[in-house]
Amino acid sequence: MHTSLDGFVAGPNGEMNWIKADDETFENVEKRVKQTDTALYGRVTYQMMEAYWPTAADKPGASRHDIEHAAWYKNAHKIVLSNTLDAAGLSNTLIIGKNDFDQLRALKAQPGKDILVFGSPSAAHALMAAGLIDGYWLFVNPILLGAGIPLFKGIPEQTKLRLLESKTLTNGVTTLYYETKLS
Questions:
Q1: Sign of torsion over alpha carbons 125, 127, 130, 133
Q2: What angle do CA 117, 62, 13 make, to 5 degrees?
Q3: Nearest in space to 38 (alpha carbons), one of 99, 97, 92
Q4: How far apart are CA 157 and CA 37, in angstroms?
Q5: Cα–Cα nearest to 54, from 22, 37, 76, 81
Q6: pLDDT tens-digit map of 86-138
Q7: Distance (Å, whole) CA 168 – CA 65
Q8: Residues with Cβ within 8 Å of residue 60, at least 6 apart in sequence
Q9: pTM (2 d.p.)
Q10: Distance CA 64, CA 57 (A)
């Protein structure tokens, strides 16, 4: 998830025009995505993704990232946390009620690759509150927004983390990967 240095994932009105994304950023995204076979979204983010990725590779001048990520998106299992979205006609997509965490826990326990939450701050907040986040993979952008949608909300008190990886990209973004399940 992209975040500002002061911990916001979007501006006060959902603005994300401050996020730095370039080929190096996309290479880092694809590295992580290759370890994943399931994407988890909130309804709003899912609808944004569904409006773009199914045809992104077919557009004239599609970037390498668009071609590779569109192929991954087509094959990935998708889970959407929503109480309003209708599953009829959705391909390779499971709709789970926003608070149906027993079903999500059962899915996490099955063999397979990681489940990766893409954006979706409200879904991430619900998952944090339920203790269902195993790690945080963050792109910390070198900007202070001062206000907006916070990255962390509803977290259990004093959640300890272990830094597994960090890297500073040439555009000034720092990638951080933290594990929450400490042994």
A1: negative
A2: 45
A3: 92
A4: 30
A5: 76
A6: 888 888 899 998 778 898 899 888 888 888 898 888 889 888 888 888 899 99
A7: 20
A8: none
A9: 0.86
A10: 9
Name the amino acid, one letter, at 111.
Answer: P
| Beta carbons of 96 and 81 less than 8 angstroms apart | yes
Please report, for the domain that includes residue 95, its CATH number. Answer: 3.40.430.10
CA neighbours within 13 Å on the CB side: how many for 99? 0
pLDDT digits (tens, 9 = 90+) for 5-21: 999 999 999 999 999 98
Question: Structurally, how many domains does the chain consist of?
Answer: 1
Q: How far apart are CA 37 and CA 108, in angstroms?
A: 12
**Amino acid present at 75:** N
What angle, 0 to 180 degrees and rounded to 10, lies between the N-to-C axes of helices 23-33 and 64-75?
20
Q: Which residue has the tokens 């709003």?
A: 44
- Amino acid in the structure at residue 83: N
CA torsion through residues 170, 54, 149, 152, sign: negative
What per-residue string of b and e applies to 112-151 under the rule 16 or more CB within 10 Å gives b? eeebbbbbbbbbbbbbbeeebbeebbbbbbebebeebbbb
Residue 168, domain extent: 2-179
With contact defined as beta carbons under 8 Å apart, do 176 and 163 qualify? yes
Residue in the block written with tokens 């960090």: 166
Spatial separation of the C-alpha atoms in residues 159 and 169, rounded to whole Å:
27
What is the bridge-based pairing of β-strands 135-141 and 149-150? unpaired
